[in-house]
Design brief:
It is a single chain. This protein has a domain of 145 residues. Helix 6 packs across helix 10. By secondary structure, the protein is of the alpha/beta class. The protein contains 19 helices and 13 strands.
Length: 522
Amino acid sequence: MVALNDLPDEIILGIASLVRVRQSPNHLLFLSAGDVTIAEDLSPEREGLKSFSMVNRRIRRIVLTTWYSVIQLHGDSDGMLKMAQLLRTFRENSQAAAAVRQLYVCMDPISHEFTSDFLKHNEEVATIYETARSVGILFPTSLFPAWDDLDYWGKTLLKRADDPKGSTDFEVYDHSDSEDILITQESIRREAEFGLFGNLFQILLLHTAGLRELIAAVPYNAWLPISIDPFAGGQRGNSNIPAYDARRLLPKLTTLALRPVEEFVEHGLNASVIATLLAIGPNIKELYLESCLLLTEFWPLKTLKNITHLTLSMTRVSASQLRVIVGACEALSTFKYTPCSDKELFFGAKPVEPGEVIQTLLPHAATLKTLCLEYFDTDPHVFITKPAGQLRQFTKLENLWIDGFSACGSFGRLSKNNSENDLENRGPRTVYFLQVFLESLPSSLETFHWSDELFDDMEYLEWIFEKLERFPKLRLVEIQCDAGEDDMPVVWRVRRALVKAGIESPLYGEMATNAEIWDKDF
């Protein structure tokens, strides 16, 4: 019997590939409420590869690239220390740094207040200092603020904010707008935390030139340069340098997924942050934004032209913002949109309605292959007066996920509590919009996911198999309704007819129920 250590390198790598981390944090980001759940899902897979790599030195050497190809940093009180230790590893082992393909980082420097503890680790602090100097992070010619700024903020300010003899408030004059800014101890601490964390994160990215996928659940403030010196006044850092001048640090990055940590959901993304991120990775093709508040109408349009996949999940965006963003994505082939609820919108803003989304996408009608719209999962429900309407112009559409609410509008929301008058008045209008929508589905469809809570009898579903000749490429139809409705006669008739025609139609418990990751296997 051949011993494990006698196996050739190729077989060792094959075994490692079987126990490597397979779940993507990019998908878990939309399935999990927070990082704790993501960590629980990923840890068992990570431990399997770790155990295998520790069999002996030879195996550890062979599987090193597999081990470092997928990295997850789950931040708590030692979050910044973990990042600094990883940086040391990259500095000492260039092979490990070159192997990184996917990086997931979830850090909240404010809630965990880990900067002051981190500064006690002199060796790690020295490593960051030396690294910053060696890679040329110096004002004003680089992407990031000078290390002198970091040193000043991280040590002087934290010490000053903790000084019991110091003043609790500081008046600072920002000469850029001549307005007085009152900075408290807490705001000083926050700026220091953001500055140190943000720059450490970006220094870490300097060492991962082979990175393909970046998933970051961090405060968006971490991407911004430090701009105000609360003691000397005036501008510091490189805030006057346009973000589009940033070096192309991650030329192989193709996927970027962003979600704010819980405390900073109300802090939005602005043009500077987006421009900086897309300049760091100029070849990004897939952009995922989850639970974001978009603050700007003026997006860096040139940096979006390579985007082919855009997911906006629970994102607060206006119709005008959406037109600008989608219009700038010249090569868009996949678009997914799930709105936030009315109660999450600010200042009386209106959510983008399904009909407005379709109108926005019309310039891409000849290239769009995947479209996901889901409105009925918002709570409370968004009131829809402009349903999706027709999709006839989307002649290349292959994958469609949509719900009856999006197709028919709010007047189509019929339930057992509706009065007979409501049913009489709204029913015909609902049927009309439903018929118009279904009749407009393009013949190019291959996969179709329909979420429904419009009618109790759902007899209209029979239209799907009565018109099968119109969809020669159709191979998958998913009918998602309440779990208890799986035994409804009409649903079973439709499924039997579809299966008989060679089209897959799974039960509720066997189908995808999340639009954001629905097409991951297509």
